[in-house]
Write a structure and sequence with these properties.
The two termini are about 30 Å apart. It is globular, with a radius of gyration of 21 Å. It has a 7-stranded mixed β-sheet. Strands 11-12-14 form a 3-stranded antiparallel β-sheet. The protein has a two-stranded parallel sheet with strand order 1-13. Strand 6 and strand 7 form a beta hairpin. The chain has 9 helices and 14 strands. It is of the alpha/beta class. The protein binds pyridoxal-5'-phosphate. The site of pyridoxal-5'-phosphate has 12 residues, from helix 3.
Length: about 375
């Protein structure tokens, strides 16, 4: 039996995608091979990566002057590649100034990594209220290398309601947990990056979308595998790309297109989130810790209203275990923040959210009686 999987990542994939991958496992497109067995430079694999890129360009309306790269190393490697390619100096440690907005744990990690190669400045932080909101951030100086934001904060469940004004300074965004969840104007960004395992496909593939004029500025000492210019020149084939992951991403993108594209996905996501948040608003047992204007569509943390820390922890433990026994799995909050969190990416159907809310109502009634 399939469960409703609320995991923050790796997370649920659309069932039709898994079924198609299973059906094609030993013979893909009549080649008599699994995608895992194909030469990446063969005529068998080339249409697979080309199709994935074409679908992504279509679904995200990516302008022609942007490169799409399928890389490895997760979003975490982009924490280093962005400064290495956009801000590093002729010698290690002598980089340009880059601004970071600290909106959570991933944002903080990105800045800490960049600080090894560039001069990083925290433009604004929401740490004072446990990252439960998005701070307003000052504009960068004209000669800053870039301005980095985390568009959706997976752990704390916030998202940017609008984008900061950065003038000519490239806006760089980690969109790991919100890619393709809502329409996004790619032309507003210099670089977008995402680990695949939230909304795109299997872990192991990382997507980078980069404006062409930002490619080619890495100083010579940057290793080949960490250079956007080399990956762009080689069409993501400088070395063996994560072939199977790219194939699954292609299937996910085809599924998304067949189900109405990004606008339709956004509508479904808003419906799911509204259902969940309106229940939380009316509940006398659970609450959302996130300030209203900044609530994520994808990651929804919630906590019992219980004041006593020990009793609250016991309730959380019981909730997570009982939910799992009803096929509602992976609802524990991040280990650094505790509580509960439902991640409701594109592949989560509304029925999953309905089932979770029904379970929460039942749990609430039982606990309060
Ligand atoms: C999951 C996540 C990461 C880390 O991704 P890896 O692919 O594991 O490196 C970084 N940023 C955000 C916003 C995430 O959700």
């Amino acid at each position: 039996m399939r469960v409703y999987n609320f995991s923050p990542g790796p997370s649920a994939l659309p069932l039709p995608v898994l079924e198609r991958a299973a059906a094609e496992m030993t013979d893909t497109n009549g080649t008599g091979q699994s995608v895992m067995e194909m030469s990446h430079r063969s005529g068998d694999f080339r249409p697979i990566i080309e199709k994935a890129e074409a679908l992504l360009r279509e679904l995200m309306e990516i302008p022609a002057n942007y490169k799409v790269l399928f890389l490895q190393g997760g979003a975490s490697l982009q924490f280093a590649m962005v400064p290495l390619n956009l801000a590093a100096g002729a010698q290690a440690g002598a980089g340009k100034r880059a601004l970071y907005v600290e909106t959570g744990i991933w944002a903080k990690k990105a800045a800490a990594e960049a600080a090894k190669y560039a001069e990083t400045v925290t433009a604004a932080s929401s740490k004072d209220r446990a990252y439960t909101y998005i701070p307003s951030a000052p504009a960068p100086a004209p000669d800053d290398a870039y301005y980095h934001i985390t568009l959706n904060n997976t752990i704390v469940g916030t998202k940017w309601a609008g984008l900061p004004e950065t003038g000519a300074v490239p806006l760089v965004a980690d969109i790991s947990s919100c890619i393709l969840s809502e329409p996004l104007d790619v032309s507003k960004f210099g670089v977008l990056y995402a680990g695949a395992q939230k909304n795109l496909g299997p872990a192991g593939t990382t997507l980078v979308i980069i404006r062409e004029d930002l490619v080619g500025h890495a100083p010579e000492w940057i290793p080949a595998m960490l250079r956007y210019d080399i990956h762009a020149a080689e069409g993501s084939m400088y070395n063996t790309p994560p072939c199977y992951g790219i194939y699954i991403i292609g299937l996910v993108l085809q599924w998304l297109k067949d189900s109405g594209g990004v606008p339709a996905a956004a509508e479904r996501n808003r419906e799911k989130a509204n259902l969940f948040y309106s229940y939380l608003e009316n509940s006398r047992f659970f609450r959302s810790p996130v300030e209203k204007p900044f609530r994520s569509l994808m990651n929804i943390p919630f906590v019992p209203l219980e004041e006593d820390a020990e009793k609250r922890a016991a309730l959380e433990k019981r909730f997570i275990a009982e939910a799992a026994s009803e096929g509602l799995v992976n609802l524990a909050g991040h280990r650094l923040v505790g509580g509960m969190r439902a991640s409701v990416y594109n592949a989560m159907p509304i029925e999953g959210v309905q089932a979770l809310v029904a379970f929460m109502k039942k749990f609430e009634e039982k606990a309060r009686s």
